[in-house]
Amino acid sequence: MTATPRFGVNYTPTRGWFHHWLDFDLDDVRADLDSVAELGLDHVRVFPLWPLFQPNRTLVRPRAVEQLVALVDAAGERGLEVNVDGLQGHLSSFDFVPSWTTTWHRRNLFTDPEVTAGQAEYLRTLAQALADRPHFLGMTVGNETNQFSSDPHPDPDRITEAEAAEWLRRMVAACEAGAPGRTHLHASDDAAWYADGHPFTPAHAARIGAMTNVHSWVFNGTAQRHGPSATATEQHAAYLIELAKPWAEEPHRPVWLQEVGAPAPHVPPERAGAFTTATVRNALDCPDVWGVTWWSSHDVDRSLADFPELEYDLGLLTNDRRVKPAGAALAEAVAELRQSWRPPRARTTALVLHGADGSGGRAACAPGGAYFEAWMRLAADGVRPACVLAEEAADAERLAARGISEVVEPRDVPPTPQRPGPRG
């Protein structure tokens, strides 16, 4: 990719959080989006709440859809393009699923024919309503909907890998039916990359939808294990971007870093700016990155109860729209990168990944796993590592297409960084 990467934010309304759809105020939305645009960002990701938009399986509320269109138009008036998440789904520790899928109407979210037909119609309806808006980027099927399919969810809708793939393809196709030619994709949390046996897989992420999507959160054990300023913490997003690539059928499939944030106390507030700058720069040292979308635009109003503590302060701006250190750091980095952007050179050294689709393979990729730790030792040693599956490590044509000239086995990575000059 030679185009300058996109820089955006996940929009968290200042008044009422995502419950603002119940008391929708376009003036509040406009003020929020003004404060986002002032940071120099170019897009937002927005979140309808599924139960509010589709309270009955055969009812997608026209007024709710009109409000979504008004929000998207307000963003466009401020030079912001918009990605819309459909099935919300899961947000900041809360689940939002409609009553027609729970309790007396309990049905599997991924396999019940009536539920999946209702979901597809909902996604098609939202996409169709926005299809003629030039500032509409496309749909994301939902926010980390994979969380509903397996542990540690308290009430999972269990499915197989094949059923997950079928569901994803159907939902992406529904988005395409509503808005042909836009950028439609799906999003998982890092269980897809790190959890053995999870039904949503790296191959699903890298082969279904218009681009691959990663969400990077260092509260997953990375910062706890390595510390807030360690290579592993500041390179976690870059690692996920590179880990996403080997499964792609196209060697230069775009990868979107769709969520990344500075969660306290794992990243102390006094380090939030430095962490933001390092994370963005490291992510953009990976080839084929479509863009970086920070979580989130504004802090959560502390008058709202029961959020995990770290969720309240993830904003680039405060709840009263004042720029925080992370927001200032991102704005400065964006301005500089737009002026000086050059596509990163290929990562010529790749770490070989064994058994990633089998028992133990994905766990090795997680923080503390043998593959994760070897990759981070290489990164700390000045190498710019890529990732390659064992089955393609001897495929000269595939390696050449990705710009890889050297492959390294995890067992051959020294246990302690040696500090030569940068390689790869």
TrEMBL record:
Gene Ontology molecular functions: hydrolase activity
Record-given protein name: Glycosyl hydrolase
Region of interest (Disordered), ranges: 403-424
Keyword Cell division set for record: no
Naturally occurring in which organism (per UniProt): Streptomyces oceani
This protein's UniProt keywords: Hydrolase
Regions crossing the membrane: none
InterPro entries: GH
Highest taxon of source: Bacteria
Positions with biased composition (Pro residues): 413-424
